[in-house]
Amino acid sequence: MVGPYPPPFGGLGNNMSLLLNSDLARRYDLDLLRTSKHVKHVKVSQADAWSGPYLVWNSLRMIGRLLRRRPRLVYVKATSDTGFVRDAALMAIARAFGLRVVCHLHGRPMGKLFAETGFWPRQVARAMRMASVTVVLSPGLKTIFSRMFPGQPIEVLPNVVDISTIAPPPARNGSGPVRILFVGRLSRDKGAFDILEIASRLNRTDPDFRIDLVGIAETEEEERGIRERTVELGLADHLVFHGYRSGADKARLFADADIFLLPTYAEIFPNVVLEAMAAGLPVVTTDVPVIPEMVTENVHGHLRKPGDIDGFVDALRSLVRDQARRRAMGAHNRTEAETRYDVPVAVETLSTIFDRVMA
After folding, report:
1. What's domain 2-160+342-358's superfamily in CATH?
2. What's the CATH number of domain 163-340, 2.60.40.1910, 3.40.605.10, 3.90.550.10, 3.40.50.2000?
């Protein structure tokens, strides 16, 4: 298994962690080649001075691992941003050893290399031929990538969540502020700064709320900036910064929440939305791809355009004022998470793909 692993903390690494600790590890002898940089803060989807040396280092590690372990199959968790250069290089090494490759593409067709016209898309399409099977996250992505990689076998497997670690919220008596939860990087592309404006406007009409922010920024300067802006807007009593949380601490924050908020500008099947659904929370987020394939307006929660501050305020206000509606949406989301997004679903799908490719 080739891909990122925390730190840094993100959906792709967390997904890898879930698989490594699932029944998949009992069915197969799994070995992880970790490709992430061992840092806390990181600019995602952006090359830096270390990208070249890391590419060489990971390539050498890949060769050494293949010589030592002699696997039958290489499973690559790939992205559609600049990290795809690394992923393609590692797939090429695996093929040079005569191995089959399953490429699980955790990326959007508008990723940096994929969105260009001309030379780069041709190289990406050529690189994807190294995979015996390409796995994408949704039926909509399968349709798009099938046009980009004609003739390539493509399967669908969404991200998953460990339902057993996330309990639905207990019945509440309605006392205390309504708890709104955000989990993700405290960055502009995740809508973290929009949350401050949303909270400021919501406070004018419905001040009985609290927003718990779980995550860290890409840089220390950005994190300092969002905290300073919180004080400037007079929101210190409404916003609580928890930093990075995992395991029981994170599960407790989901259990204490009433609404999940993610005003993101760019996503690809976010794990945190699945976690929110598993926790029985209504979801208020944006309609960027591929979220509308996960969240239906007025069924799972509410969808708004990125940057639509007033739209988010209206959506949150309607849920803050209606506890019964929050509970109904949350119960529906929990049931759907259990049937569609639990870890065993991914284990069965991947096992079928692995066995077919190795055969």
Report:
1. Glycogen Phosphorylase B; (3.40.50.2000)
2. 3.40.50.2000
Which residues have C-beta within 8 Å of that of residue 172, sequence separation ≥ 6? 258, 323
Structure tokens at 330: 């949350």
Report pLDDT digits (tens) over 287-332: 998 899 999 999 999 999 999 999 999 999 999 999 999 999 999 9
Q: Per the structure block, which two tokens stand in for 193?
A: 């700064």
Question: What is the per-residue pLDDT across 194-217, written as a single tens digit (0 to 9) for each?
Answer: 999 999 999 999 999 999 999 998
d(CA 357, CA 66): 18
Residues 171-182: b if buried by 16+ CB within 10 A, e if exposed = eeeeeeebbbbb
Name the residue ranges covered by the structural domains of the chain: 2-160+342-358, 163-340
Length of the chain: 359
73 phi, psi to nearest 5 deg: -150, 145
pLDDT confidence band for 41 (50 / 70 / 90): very low
